[in-house]
Amino acid sequence: IKVCQSFLFIHHPSFIHSVVHISVVHTCQLSSLMLKASLGNLLLLATAINRTAAIVRNANAFQLFALNSRKSTLTHTSPDRTLFTTRLTLHTRNFSSKLLMNGQEVVNDERDSGAHTNLLWEWATHSDEKIHDFTTEEAEAIRSKLLVWYRANRRKLPWRGDPEPYDGSTAGIATSSKVKKKARKDKQVAKGQKNIKSFFQSNSSEEKKGTRSETESTSAESLLEKSELDIIPITGYSVWVSEIMLQQTRVEAVIPYYLKWMKSFPTVEALANASEEEVNSHWAGLGFYRRARLLHKGAKFVCDDLNGVVPDSVDELLNVSGIGRYTASAISSIAFDKCVPVVDGNVCRVISRLKGVANNIKAPIFKDKLGWGLAEQIVSSGDGKYAGEVNQALMELGATYCAPSGTGVDKDDPLVEFYMSTKIGEAVNELVKHDPMAVSNFVYKISKQMVKSKCKLCEETGVESILFQLGEDLVSIEKNPELLNNAAAILGHSRFPTNPPKKNKREEILGVAALSHNIDADEKWFMVKRPKDGLLAGQWEFPNSCLWNSSSVEKKGSGKSKAKKAIEIPIMNRLDTSNAVSKLLSDFYIEELNDVSLQDIWIQSEAQRILVNDDTAIEHIFSHVRWSMFCDHTDVSSSLETLQEFQAIYEDRECRWMSESDMQKVGITSSVKKLLAAIKTRRNAGNPKKRRKIKK
User: What is the predicted pLDDT for the residue at 643?
Assistant: First the structure.
């Protein structure tokens, strides 16, 4: 960050510390630094004092900031983090009382006047991950509370052996958003949520509309015809299927797919004997199709190598394709009641709030390593029985009362008395009550207590970030007395776990060719099968070509700067996309006519061609990729009058003409459904007044 000449101007670090509040938040770019409000005042101060700063001392994580008098640039080197946002806020309140008096800084002693509690001090200065361990009594009490709550209030779901009706929605959860909205007006808050009691007490919930990557919202009625399927027994296979389907997909979205799947493939043998297209048709719309392929492959392995018996131990389950530590532990504990922990994002969130873990739930050290030990302390406490129920209770709590928007103070939350997150919020509130700058002073003091060894479980600057964010929130809430009731506890709860670093999605621009004919009763479409590996492996789609992707841009600019920059997506010329599509079709050769390509048929039918979308791309979003699609469509019926349906050859990929009923049988992806809908909309709307001439 380059700031004007003579940015900070005093040679006394303590004076700088008193005037400038420096905080670090990892997940933002340096370019988002908010300096406008204070820059003018700082420059006036520079003119008056005309000195340059040499050193700024703050939290241990910063080490040193280099301040150059010509081009004041703030630099920070960290072994683990390269992206920081440094927010500089000029504090003027009680300014005169903070100045140096005869060269001596006016500071309070670390434990003076009860400004912060022992709990806050011990948490903020801890250097060993053992501080996050549960005591024996604490683990037993948590386990007991969870079992009582879960048995009385758990959701009714088909993979838990429950009969209809089912209730998978968590939309009725009480949140802390109201407090956060008024404290931080720049946040958008969802409105109109029901009380969570209606969610637990109701036998069935209204299907909620929502969006999910690569997943199409489909009602249970359209997916599952009324059948005699009543209660699905809890077996290793049934738990396996449910856990694979639930990965990165909402519970209420999974229910109809699960019921349809278990009706068609009630046993592992039935799944092993199914064809690839049958499996795809049952999975179509759930997204992340690799899960279905691995589930199918795993079922074949169980039947061929394990005599059709799903193993009950974690070690044996790990030998099955598509089963990792989480799925293996879930099957072992839920289906066979083995005393093993199960750790997912929901469990990590609960543990983070119970023990004050200042890290994000996607951090490998947390979700893949040390988090398992903490979960095991709860699951194995007492007599170690009912491990499956304890694990499900932890996950259920993380999806309901301890969801990201949970408050931590709801009287119906079974662990409300155990959350360290709410206690930390209250302790920080005691600091800011006395002095709005107390958090900054507190962080400065704890930095002097830090030792070289750091807690492995907490993020490097996670404690400091949480303290600064809480301080800012609580100072804002101080102006709204009606929010003070439980506000500190709720805000403390909301800051755990920390936010994971955001990754840019890979951007891809595709040119798509949609060919159809209606020489038969049903309109048919030319489809090509994707390669066996990679994204959407083995799925059917329209012929397409990638015209641009952001990966090549990132590689070119990956030399000097590690800072992430927003990807600039180029504006595509529709003539160029159409030409690219035509060129792609030249690689499809018609078996019946050796010298004729699909491009020749495409050109012959130019009069029937339409641009499905003009300059606005049709978007389809995956978890890590965004497609921007430009589609051209033509009816090739006139060219097929003598040929009938031809078979095309394209590399080693299978090609086929399909009606929409054929597509339903093989299971087409949501992106193909979007394109089909767009084509029909354009055809129904009529062609533009004058079609564009497309070059060969």
Answer: 58
Sign of the CA dihedral 255, 258, 262, 268?
A: negative
Residue 287 falls in which region: left (phi positive, over 0), alpha (psi -120 to 50) or beta:
left
Which pairing describes strands 506-517 and 625-635: parallel, antiparallel, or unpaired? parallel
Contacts of 595 (CB under 8 A, 6+ apart): none
pLDDT computed for residue 396 by the predictor = 96
Sign of CA dihedral 608, 612, 613, 617: negative
> Which segment, 18-27, 410-419, 500-509, 543-552, is predicted with the most confidence on average?
410-419
CB-neighbour burial class of residue 109 (10 A; exposed 0-12, middle 13-18, buried 19+): exposed
Residue pair 474/433 in contact (Cβ under 8 Å)? The answer is no
Q: Would residue 214 be called left, alpha or beta, if left means φ above 0 and alpha means ψ between -120 and 50 degrees?
A: left
Judge contact between 139 and 372, C-beta under 8 A.
no
**Distance separating alpha carbons of residues 413 and 459, to the nearest angstrom:** 27
Cα distance between residue 463 and residue 126, in whole Å: 10
Token digits of residue 361:
């739930």
Residue-level pLDDT at 28: 37
Identify any residues that bridge with 20 across adjacent strands, giving them in sequence order. Answer: 90
**Tokens 């011990």 -> residue:** 122
* Beta bridge pairs of residue 526: 657
> What's the chain's average pLDDT?
76
Q: What is the dihedral of CA 439, 442, 448, 454, to 10 degrees?
A: -60
Under DSSP, the state recorded for 621 is: E
Pair of tokens at residue 339: 């005393």
Q: Is the pLDDT of residue 201 over 50?
A: no
DSSP state letter for 369: I
Assign 693 to helix, strand or coil.
Answer: coil
For residue 87, the surrounding DSSP H or E stretch is strand 85-90
- Segment (H or E) for 512: strand 506-517
Sign of the torsion angle spanned by Cα atoms 478, 479, 481, 485: negative
567, exposed or middle or buried, with CB in 10 Å at 0-12, 13-18, 19+?
middle
The per-residue pLDDT for 232 is 95
Indicate if 129 belongs to the active site: no
Q: Say if CB 347 and CB 370 are below 8 A apart.
A: no
The set of residues, in sequence order, having a beta carbon less than 8 Å from that of 128 and lying 6+ positions away, is 453, 455
User: Using CA atoms, how far apart are residues 122 and 427, in angstroms rounded to an integer?
Assistant: 12
Burial class for 218, CB neighbours closer than 10 Å (0-12, 13-18, 19+): middle
**Whether residue 165 has a cis bond before it, omega within 30° of 0:** yes
Give the separation between CA 335 and CA 239, rounded to whole angstroms: 7
Q: Distance between CA atoms of 130 and 107, rounded to whole angstroms?
A: 32
Integer Cα distance of 253 and 13 in angstroms: 56
Q: Which of 62, 120, 82 is nearest to 471 (CA)?
A: 120
Q: Which of 129, 243, 472, 508 is catalytic?
A: 243
Position 566 confidence tier, pLDDT thresholds 50, 70, 90: low
pLDDT in tens, 135-178: 999 999 999 999 999 999 999 999 999 999 998 776 655 555 44
Long-range residue pairs from 199-204, CB within 8 A, at least 24 positions apart, any chain:
199/167, 199/169, 199/170, 199/171, 199/172, 199/173, 199/400, 200/153, 200/155, 200/400, 200/412, 202/167, 203/156, 203/165, 203/167, 204/165, 204/166, 204/167
Higher pLDDT residue, 7 or 623? 623
**Six-digit token string for 622:** 């995956």
Backbone angles phi, psi at 602, to 5 degrees: -60, -45
